[in-house]
Every structure is written in structure tokens, then in C-alpha cells.
Amino acid sequence: MTADPPEPGSGPPPRRRRPRYAGTHPRRFDERYKERDPDKYPDLEAHVRAQGRTPAGTHVPIMVAEVLAALRPAPGESVADLTVGYGGHALALLERTAPDGRLIGLDLDGPQLEATGRRLAQLVDPARVHLHHSHFAGLPKLLAADGLASVDIMFADLGLASMQIDNPARGFSYKHDGPLDMRMDLRRPRTAADVLRTITCEELATALRELADEPEHEQIAQAIIRRRSERPITRTQELADVVLSAQGLTRRTWRAAVAAGESELHPAARTFQALRILVNDELHGLEQLLRVAPYCLHAGGRLGILTFHSGEDRRVKHSLRDGLRDGVYAQIADQPLRPSPAERHANPRSTPAKFRWAVRAAAT
Ligand SMILES: C[S@@+](CC[C@H](N)C(=O)[O-])C[C@H]1O[C@@H](n2cnc3c(N)ncnc32)[C@H](O)[C@@H]1O
Known about the structure:
Elements: H1 42-50, H2 64-71, E1 79-81, H3 88-97, E2 103-107, H4 110-123, E3 129-133, H5 139-145, E4 151-157, H6 162-166, H7 192-198, H8 201-212, H9 217-230, H10 236-246, H11 251-259, H12 269-279, H13 282-292, E5 297-307, H14 310-325, E6 329-332, H15 341-346, E7 354-360
Parallel strand pairs: 1-2, 1-4, 2-3, 4-5
Antiparallel strand pairs: 5-7, 6-7
Helix pairs in contact: 8-9, 8-12, 9-10, 13-14
């Protein structure tokens, strides 16, 4: 029996072999094909989480119980999740506002937001979820576009999601080599490599001090500018090596110091944090959000913000205190809430988190 040859493009797609990794366990982000598909391999995801690690391509939401207790989501309420990420908090809020509460979700990371949209659509009624690829300072316009003047709950979980940090192609981590990018929003014109090409030594030293409390800010800034005069710094590992050498270290001596229990925080961690905040203009964006936030909440509406470093927490604290004084907020958290020791142990990335909340007063 003979058959006509199939029309081009009509047959099943050709099977593509997954890239092989060396050894018995995948090491690189792109090799961890099971971890990056957690819905297909739930046992592996549970195993990785039980070891205190975050499976590649996912994110473990932080302080969920504390966030829900402070924000008290109720059936039918409207929620703006300003930093949807992997959708962990969004899902918890959607569960509490079921069956018909709406979620307006924002994120700067377009590809990640699309992936999260697909994930949420399998778990809740898609009509309840409206996602926008946007900076959170644009919230008032987006609410208007969704036919809302204000919402019952606003929540922001600042900084980066684990899958952004762990993906070397995004250039956020000193742990893996990748292009020095660091843009949360890929529509932004300037990468971290572009910033390092033009910043002055004084500006860089100030950023290291103010955005990351880096005690060695002058030495590190000078070392970066010296290296830049020889050739542009375009890779994460190059930058990490320059910062190590500014502190008299190499990768090998640093590993030895860690093995001997002498050090924990990587010497380049603060430099990467400062540069990321600069590239994404994060503190200015947060100030814009804090200005518009109360006007996007109903009277009695709740605002919650999770921060991860002192520059963020200070801004949130002052804004909420000023709002209480001026009668914009009826109530605020006296002190920030912190993750429990058990959560810090299970998810070390939660360690620096601080959570503050406020309740909107009647219209002012
Ligand atoms: C810590 S993650 C959020 C994780 C999320 N709560 C979860 O449970 O999966 C922070 C997210 O906020 C996004 N983001 C950071 N700054 C933003 C901004 N100004 N506007 C909108 N999204 C932002 C990042 O791209 C990232 O996906």
C-alpha cells in the first residue's frame, strides 16, 4: 500500500532531542528540563523544595500566611497584584476572593507574565484574571482601562523572582556566567553593560554605597573603571571577578574561604544589587507607586508591600507614616513583619524580607 507524501507542515512536529548534560545530574539552568516544567514533575519539585532550594524556573512565594492575615481578602473582592511574578501570591489571593473576585496583575517581565498567565488560566477561571505588561506606577490608568476606579486590595512583592535570578540569560546573578543585562523589562533601552560603559567613578561609588550599603564602594568603583578602560565589561562573570580582585580575592580563594566557614555573602552580591536597582530605576519607581497607591484603594482597602533591602523599606515606612499622619491611611503596621525562622530555613531567599501594610481611610 502506498500513501501520498504528507503536505509540508501537516504532519506531527519533528521530535527534538533535549540537549545532553555531562555527568549524572543537570547543573546548568538550561539543562534542568524537569525542574523547569514543575507541573509535569511534581515529585521532583517537592524534593528540590524540601532541600531548601527553589526549582529552576519557579518561585516560592514569601510570607503568604502573614500577607493573607494582614490583607484579609474576602469573596468577591478586587485585588491588584502589582508584581505577579510566578503568581504564587496572586493564586493565594484568587483562592480567597473566589468565586468572582477579580485580579488585576502587573509585571515588567513580558515573557514571564505570559507564562504565568498560561499557568493561572489552568488553575482559576480566566475571566477573573486581567494581566498587564506594565510598570506598577501605571496602575491608575490600567484600573480605568479595566473599568475600575479603585480596588479592595493592593499588593507588591518587590525585587526579582527566583526564575529571573536563576536564568543566566537575564544577567542578574554573579553565580552563573551570562550577558550583563539585568533589565526586568526587556523593552528598556539600557542594559547593565551599557550603564557600566558610561557611569562615572563617583556615580558608581555613590550607587554602591546608597543602593547596597557596600563598605568597599570606592575600591570596587575604581577597579571597575580601571577594567573598563582596558575593555568593556559585558559578562556577569567578568564583573564578579573584577569585584573579587578589588577585594584581593579570586574565585578559588573565595571558595576556600566559604569552605572554611569564614564568609557567606558573595563579595559581588552588593555590587550586583546596586547595578540592578540602577538599571531598572527601582527606587524612583517605588516612590511613584507610593504616591499613587492610596488613590487606587477604596475606603477600608488594604495595601501590603514586601521589601528586600533597606532603601526600599525606608521609603515604604516613611510613606505609610506620612499617610497615617495626614489621614490618608486609617491604620498602618507599627513594625515590619519578618519571615519566621522556619520559613527562612526552608527558603533562604526569604531572609531579608520585610512586610508592611496599611488600611485606607475614608476618602481624603
Ligand atoms: C519577587 S517577584 C514576585 C513574585 C510573586 N509574588 C510570586 O509569588 O510569584 C517580583 C516581580 O515583580 C516584577 N517587578 C519588579 N518591579 C516592578 C515594577 N516596577 N512594576 C511591575 N513589576 C515589577 C519583577 O519582574 C518580578 O517578576
